[in-house]
Amino acid sequence: MYKVRIKPHWEIAYDNEAPLDTANLLTLLAAIQQSGSIAQAAQQIRYSYRHAWGLLRDAERIFGNHLIDSGRGRGTTLTPFADKLLWADRMVTARLSPTLDSLASELEVELGKTVEGKSETVRLNASHGFAVAALLGKFNEARLPVEVRYRHSTDAVAALSRQECDLAGFHVPLGEFERPAIATYAKWLNKRSDCLIHLAVRNQGLFVEQGNPKNVKSLADLTRGDLRFVNREAGSGTRMLLELMLSGSGINHKNINGFENTEFTHSAVAAFIASGMADVGFGVQTASQRFGLEFIPLVRERYFFALPAASLHDPLIRAVIDILQSESFRAAVNNLAGYDATDTGKIQTLKEAFG
Predict the structure, then answer these.
(1) What tens digit of pLDDT does each residue of 54-86 get?
(2) pLDDT digits (tens, 9 = 90+) for 219-270
(3) Which of 94, 143, 303, 324 is 20 to 30 A (C-alpha) from 32?
């Protein structure tokens, strides 16, 4: 089975200088940030000490900025400019990963068809998320052939209704907004022939800078003139949830500074705030933690995979269920900040799930 990985790759130039390939430099800067030592960083990534210093000096000459601060007895730290380079790389990855991962999956399938004559795969359509990524990792370990396409929850269930995928991921809030949310998906879900597999419960809320310097407490604060908001894109399940919550609180989104400023993933929203380009965003707790932000929980939601009940006996779908119900996968989900795997792998009818 072929496995394709596509990583973002970018160059940077200043004035008329030749562009610098950032890959090696960013690897070195990340290692310095982690170890606090150029020597240890070089050893960790298997560069010679001389090569590491040369890479730093060449980059500093091109950028006209220092990249490291060091002194006797206090180790080596990155300058704000170097930190910004690492942030830029994380932003590139956060924005492009869903597209590149989907493309890699398509290539794997086509290579398999051409070289091995294989075409049978599990077709998974879902929004980009941390539990879904953990599941794909388990699929890879089990060498389970999967074709993944990252798309909004509404697009995923619509694709299922057209028989364009085998599993469609979507998420629904617990509590007062459950009914209007499920009503959005109901036009594509067949309560007689479809069923659900529970993936996880997760926390959604506000992302703010560590320490919450702007003293953000609730959705009502989003209309404050001193706050810059960054949103998820229109059509995403998280954007839909936020709009339901704003409407329920009587908040007009037109009064929110930056409401139309959007990112495609939870991680990209968190990266935007971590960079100082916005003050607050809305998304899942895991993304907030990974970018060193503070999280204000507002709502819990359930994430499901919808599928035709008739497919439950298909060998590939059974393999998916076995992985979802495994202790190792439940442990992986529980290790994600804000996720709960208590019901992971549970199979339900739509009526059982939503009443």
Answers:
(1) 999 988 988 888 999 876 666 789 999 999 898
(2) 999 999 999 999 999 889 999 999 999 999 999 999 999 999 999 899 999 9
(3) 94
By residue count, the chain amounts to: 355
Exposed / middle / buried, residue 207 (Cβ in 10 Å: 0-12, 13-18, 19+): buried
Spatial distance between the Cα atoms of 349 and 33, rounded to a whole number of angstroms: 49
Structure tokens given for 8? 């973002």
Burial 6-35 (b: 16+ CB within 10 A, else e): eebeeeeeeeeeeebebeebbbbbbbbbeb
E strand segments, the chain:
11-12, 20-21, 68-71, 75-78, 122-126, 146-150, 167-173, 194-208, 229-232, 262-263, 280-284, 294-308, 339-340, 347-349
Q: What is the mean pLDDT of residues 134-159?
A: 92
The residue among 306, 302, 303 whose CA lies nearest residue 124 is 306
Separation CA 54–CA 47 (nearest Å): 11
DSSP-derived secondary structure for 43-85: HHTT--HHHHHHHHHHHHHHHTS--EEEETTTEEEE-HHHHHH
CA distances 158 to 125, 161, 163, 168, Å, are 10, 5, 9, 9
CA Rg value for the chain:
23
Token pair of 331, please?
């442990």
> What predicted TM-score, i.e. pTM, was given to this entire model?
0.82
CB half-sphere exposure, 154, CA atoms < 13 A:
14
Question: Is residue 319's pLDDT more than 80?
Answer: yes
